[in-house]
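Course exercise 7: structure representation. Students receive a sequence record and must write out the corresponding structure in C-alpha cell form. The form below is the worked example handed out in class, using Redoxin domain-containing protein (113 residues). Read each field label carefully; the graders check that inputs and outputs are placed in the correct fields and that the protein name is recorded exactly as given.

STUDENT ID: A-19
EXERCISE PROTEIN: Redoxin domain-containing protein
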Amino acid sequence: MRELREFREHHAEFERSGIALAGVSTDSIERHRKWTSRLKLPYPLVSDPESRAGEALGIVRRIGLGTWRVELFRRTTLLVDIEGRIAAWWGKVSIRGHAAEVLRTARSARLAT
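STUDENT ANSWER:
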C-alpha cells in the first residue's frame, strides 16, 4: 500500500507531465474499490484475477502450502509509451522514492512533457 500512496502523492506531477497512472493486481474489483476509497487514490486500479497480464509479462509469483495456492504479481513498474511499447521496466521495486524515479525516467526519455 505504501507504493500506492507514493504514486498518489506524485499524481499531480504525473498528470501535468501527461502521464496516466494505473495499478494492476490479481485482487478483486471490490478490494480495489476499497483501496481506492480508503487511500483516496486519484488513479484507477485494474483487477486481473486470472493473471493474464501478469502471465504475459512474466511477473506472476506462485506461492502455496499443501493444496492451498495463490498467484500474486511481483512488484513491478512499467513505463509504457503512447504507442503501447514498454519504454522502461522496474523489477524488485524499492518503494521509497520510486514514483519520483519513474517520473524522472519518463521526462529524460521524453515520454513526458
